[in-house]
Write a structure and sequence with these properties.
elongated, 3 domains, 53% helix, two-stranded parallel sheet, 2 strands, 149 residues, single chain, mainly alpha
């Protein structure tokens, strides 16, 4: 242990500690005040109910909970409704309906027609103005009833 002073007196170090603690408290207060989180609003709850009704009507067996839908989609559809027919989203969908190979072995497959119905249901409830564009894109996909059950 060294007895050499680092140049700051005890009073100066105490002042620095108090200033740092004060800044930390102010930043924590700002964070708590500005935090909006996943607050459940009446609009989000109503849209979740509507989506659950669409899923039930479609015969979905394993329904997500209302809290899960509100947490993920909120009242505006979240990322699902942020330009759902753009090129990146199409490329992501194409990569999910491929044979699973990588590189030059990757090939598109005929997918089950039920694959995109959930996405269309979400878009229909949360951003119906985007539905025609997405529906036109989905209608161009080659689908069939390939999955039993």
């Amino acid at each position: 242990m060294s007895n050499q002073s680092d140049g700051a007196s005890r009073r100066e170090r105490t002042y620095i500690y108090w200033v740092a603690a004060g800044l930390l408290v102010v930043m924590a207060a700002i964070a708590l005040i500005s935090y909006r989180g996943a607050k459940e609003s009446q609009a989000a709850s109503a849209k979740a109910d509507e989506l659950l009704a669409v899923f039930q009507k479609a015969g979905v067996r394993e329904l997500p909970s209302k809290d899960q839908i509100v947490g993920v989609l909120g009242d505006d559809g979240g990322s699902v409704c942020q330009d759902p027919s753009n090129s990146l989203r199409k490329a992501t969908l194409f990569s999910m309906i491929a044979n699973g190979a990588a590189g030059p072995g990757m090939r598109p497959v005929i997918t089950d027609s039920r694959l995109v119905r959930g996405q269309l249901a979400v878009i229909g409830v949360y951003c119906p103005d985007e539905l025609p564009d997405v529906q036109a894109f989905v209608d161009d996909l080659k689908t069939d009833s390939v999955v039993k059950g």
